[in-house]
From TrEMBL:
InterPro entries: Bact_solute-bd_prot1, SBP. It holds the Pfam family SBP_bac_1. It comes from Paenibacillus vulneris. This is ABC transporter substrate-binding protein. It comes from the Bacteria.
Length: 465
């Protein structure tokens, strides 16, 4: 995603498994093959497989150690992808030929499936009667859609967001509580109903995207991030990755910019000007406006709950926030879908694997009910795909995180456009939004500049590549 995902585990940064091997003979989107039916390992049969993962220690801590206890006869070697990119990565894949691959990008996963590089899992899922019924349908639907209707990988966790709100602030100022499936207009109208006349510690904001380090590092782009969130909800793209063109001059983007600029101008939205360093956990938590009761609503991942719980335990001079959640804002024309839902890691088997049975045992175990039960205790994940183990937290119902259907709208460009483009573009676009807020530019003028300068930035990045 172009806006970044906050709080994900180290394994999620892998854009690994992205380049690759020659087409294998065991799978393809053209249908199942009998060779995909694999013979179970014998009682004392030993096997050795390789898994390509971001970091060896992360893999062992999250999956490998528990797998080794369950399957002591299967030796799992971890091929670390942490310091490998470009040609070096390609060479490592060719040299090591890992049996199990991990994808962070669903689009890359789709490419590999289409090119026959992945082992089709449908036959072995049926053969072993592996339970996929209790995996979130959203997750299975996404995986099947990327595999042409077939299953080429499984995802133990997924990413999502919800709208967190401070119940006490809503009650104090007589503002109606948020509800599921609100539009952006409704959310920002609620935000405007909070007072804007406080100063210092008495200042209350109606809305903020306020992960503490996001505030510090991204404040110049804040206006565009709000505009982009609104546009993405409505299925808009700021880039056409196929044509290589910026696509901001449209009625949809005019509406998104107008709504964002109006909200920022009202003073209801936190403007992200904090820059104090956080040299301790306590300082980091105190910088978070939601956990300290200074903001009424914020969009965040499940990791915000960890911050709230930690603040309750560690910040003795701060009253615990009385929080709850509803779904993220939605497009009124498509109120049951959200583009903030995505899979975190997809585990697949290399079609060239010399031991697909042992590789399947690893993929199967990582995605099993048994593993989900264990991972639910560690709180290392945002959400497990087996949602039976993530029904509630801190006494709150977590359904708003997964009640909406998964929508790919607004995500495709972000997966295919170089990250270097957004690093420069977001700040430039944020400055243009601020000019609209300050009354120094019209919406049309700002969008025209974003379009023109954005195209120049994109062309320069592609030329470098």
């Amino acid at each position: 995603m172009k806006l970044g995902r906050l709080g994900l585990t180290a394994g999620l940064v892998l854009s690994v498994m992205m380049a690759g091997c020659d087409s294998g003979s065991l799978a393809g989107t053209g249908g199942e093959k009998s060779s995909n039916m694999v013979k179970p390992l014998g009682k004392d049969e030993k096997a050795s497989i390789k898994v390509a993962y971001y970091d060896k220690n992360s893999f062992l801590q999250m999956y490998g150690n528990m797998f080794s206890v369950k399957y002591p006869n299967i030796d799992v070697q971890v091929v670390s992808m942490q310091d490998t990119s470009g040609p070096g990565f390609q060479k490592l894949i060719d040299d090591e030929q890992p049996d199990v691959l991990v994808f962070h990008s669903p689009e890359r996963f789709k490419e590999w499936a289409e090119q026959g590089r992945l082992y089709q899992l449908d036959p072995v899922i049926r053969q072993d009667k592996f339970d996929t019924e209790n995996i979130l349908p959203n997750v299975m639907d996404l995986l099947k859609s990327k595999g042409g209707g077939n299953i080429y990988g499984l995802a133990p966790s997924f990413y999502s967001q919800a709208l967190f709100y401070n119940k006490d602030l809503f009650e104090k100022f007589g503002v109606p509580l948020p509800h599921n499936k609100m539009s952006w207009e409704e959310v920002l109208q609620l935000a405007k109903r909070f007072p804007k006349d406080g100063h210092g510690n008495d200042r209350i904001y109606g809305f903020a995207r306020n992960s503490a380090d996001w505030i510090v590092s991204e404040n110049k782009a804040l206006g565009y991030y709000l505009m982009n969130s609104i546009g993405t909800t409505h299925g808009l793209e700021d880039m056409d990755p196929v044509k290589g063109t910026v696509t901001l001059q449209s009625e949809g983007w005019k509406h998104a910019l107008g709504l964002a600029a109006d909200a920022l101008k009202s003073g209801a939205v936190y403007t992200g000007k904090t820059s104090d360093p956080a040299d301790s956990n306590e300082a980091w938590l105190k910088r978070d406006l939601f956990v300290t009761g200074k903001v009424a609503m914020t969009l965040e991942s499940p990791y915000m709950i960890n911050n709230i719980v930690r603040a309750k335990e560690e910040l003795k001079d701060v009253n615990p926030v009385n929080w709850d959640i509803v779904t993220v804002p939605v497009d009124p024309k498509n109120p049951d879908a959200s583009s903030t839902i995505d899979v975190s890691e997809i585990f697949a088997i290399n079609a060239k694997s010399s031991n697909p049975r042992a590789a399947w045992e690893l993929v199967k175990y990582i995605n099993s009910d048994e593993m989900a039960k264990q991972l639910a205790k560690t709180e290392q994940f945002g959400f497990l795909s087996r949602t039976a183990y993530v029904k509630e937290r801190d006494g709150r119902d977590l359904e708003p995180f997964y009640m909406l259907k998964m929508s790919n709208r607004g995500l495709q460009a972000g997966e295919q456009v170089p990250s270097e483009f957004y690093a420069t573009f977001n700040e430039m676009a944020g400055n243009e939004v601020q000019l609209v807020v300050d009354g120094k530019k019209s919406i049309d003028e700002a969008l025209n500049t974003m379009q023109t300068k954005g195209q120049e930035i994109y062309n320069a990045v592609k030329q470098k590549q």
